Amino acid sequence: MTFNYTRTIRFQDTDAAGVVYFANVLAMCHEAYEQSLAASGINLKVFFSNSSVAIPIVHASVDFFRPMFCGDEIFIKLMCKYLSSETFEVAYQFVVADKIVAKAITRHVCIDAVSRSRKEFSAEIVRWLREWGEQGKLI
Amino acid sequence: MTFNYTRTIRFQDTDAAGVVYFANVLAMCHEAYEQSLAASGINLKVFFSNSSVAIPIVHASVDFFRPMFCGDEIFIKLMCKYLSSETFEVAYQFVVADKIVAKAITRHVCIDAVSRSRKEFSAEIVRWLREWGEQGKLI
Amino acid sequence: MTFNYTRTIRFQDTDAAGVVYFANVLAMCHEAYEQSLAASGINLKVFFSNSSVAIPIVHASVDFFRPMFCGDEIFIKLMCKYLSSETFEVAYQFVVADKIVAKAITRHVCIDAVSRSRKEFSAEIVRWLREWGEQGKLI
Amino acid sequence: MTFNYTRTIRFQDTDAAGVVYFANVLAMCHEAYEQSLAASGINLKVFFSNSSVAIPIVHASVDFFRPMFCGDEIFIKLMCKYLSSETFEVAYQFVVADKIVAKAITRHVCIDAVSRSRKEFSAEIVRWLREWGEQGKLI
């Protein structure tokens, strides 16, 4: 199933070229990711301040098709994909006025926050992957 | 009348101390301000890319009472105050779980975007000031 | 003594009005503060990830006199002021091409990071206060 | 030739996991890019507020190998690559204490800022590409 997140482009998101600063698009991806975690019942405060487990991003990529302006209403479609027992990917599609304006991917690895060695996902992440993934298919 | 804006604290808003980075609180104030403009029917894209008129912030201050954490749901109460035909102030109160966690003020001056000399507010700003102000009283 | 920090305005610092986004000025203040700590021999990594002591900002204010543009070379003059055994203020002056473009103040309180109760400054902070303060006089 | 840019990790760059927030690494790439433009004699203020030509990023990707902490001194090695008369790529390598901590790429397309149709690079961009490129070889 696809998770949908709506977001208004803020003045802060823009730069002197009058459009969204490129790196801020990845920050919006992370917002959608956080919201999808919350939608699966995951407590964000606990999840992101966990001192034993972390799921850092090891890779991100983004393609820009059209500029986004302050005030634009963007619809972010998120879909996750299980890669292994410690790795997943999240794909994001940004839509404004029925046109795809950007696409992005983030790859995450579950690690022990202290030793930084790989660690299997918790049950709640497995549940989240089942909820917002679709038979190994990305957007 | 008070304008109310709800916002979830995002991972990006935090710093290595585990709480919201201080300057990001002012960015959230501006988000609430933008949302209040939109609620009064102002087109944000036109408003913030206007090449003839600008309403830059000339002063801002903020007081922090309690830390804000990733995942916290914050309620921002915004109230504006007419100071002169080219100046207004906006007051913001941040509430988490019924406790005031921060207060802030921004002061704005209307100028000609090219000459940067003062200029009277447009009719839509006067309407916005009437809608979200309260007889010259700040929060 | 005044601590001096030089910084080029980056594209990311700007917004769609073509000038520096107001809240980013406070982030630049913090950069200058960090650099002044490092100049006094304080290890920033240890200082900002200290799990027992924290010195959060409880108040900040900023005044803007002129716009700052991408590429501008800014000179930030920092001076700190001892207020009590757990409180200090830092004053910042932003200068571009010999003109003051902004002024800011941050107030910090030393606390126990767990209980969040007040705590006296460490010896290294006292030394930093002596180095960059001037007989209780702010800029 | 490789362009080298040094940058201290700031508190603002970090998140509640205690390390640099992933999207901020791309913002640091852009800082290095801006500095390389300035090093070739390009006026950043004119370049980034040019109302007729723009060189937006159409693609970015980043790989993270090790975490970066507040206070870390990072060395960014930048190299650009000519792809066509309107397209170039920039590759970035992040090094901390002689270890590669991240790698990134940004792809840029030169366009007419109004019509948003493709446009050939100006002479100054061609000069910059010659200065920081190396026979079509990326890092």
UniProtKB/TrEMBL annotation, chains A, B, C, D:
<protein>
    <recommendedName>
        <fullName>1,4-dihydroxy-2-naphthoyl-CoA hydrolase</fullName>
        <ecNumber>3.1.2.28</ecNumber>
    </recommendedName>
</protein>
<comment type="similarity">
    <text>Belongs to the 4-hydroxybenzoyl-CoA thioesterase family. DHNA-CoA hydrolase subfamily.</text>
</comment>
<comment type="pathway">
    <text>Cofactor biosynthesis; phylloquinone biosynthesis.</text>
</comment>
<feature type="active site">
    <location>
        <position position="15"/>
    </location>
</feature>
<dbReference type="InterPro" id="IPR029069">
    <property type="entry name" value="HotDog_dom_sf"/>
</dbReference>
<comment type="function">
    <text>Catalyzes the hydrolysis of 1,4-dihydroxy-2-naphthoyl-CoA (DHNA-CoA) to 1,4-dihydroxy-2-naphthoate (DHNA), a reaction involved in phylloquinone (vitamin K1) biosynthesis.</text>
</comment>
<keyword id="KW-0378">Hydrolase</keyword>
<dbReference type="InterPro" id="IPR022829">
    <property type="entry name" value="DHNA_CoA_hydrolase"/>
</dbReference>
<dbReference type="Pfam" id="PF13279">
    <property type="entry name" value="4HBT_2"/>
</dbReference>
<comment type="pathway">
    <text>Quinol/quinone metabolism; 1,4-dihydroxy-2-naphthoate biosynthesis; 1,4-dihydroxy-2-naphthoate from chorismate: step 7/7.</text>
</comment>
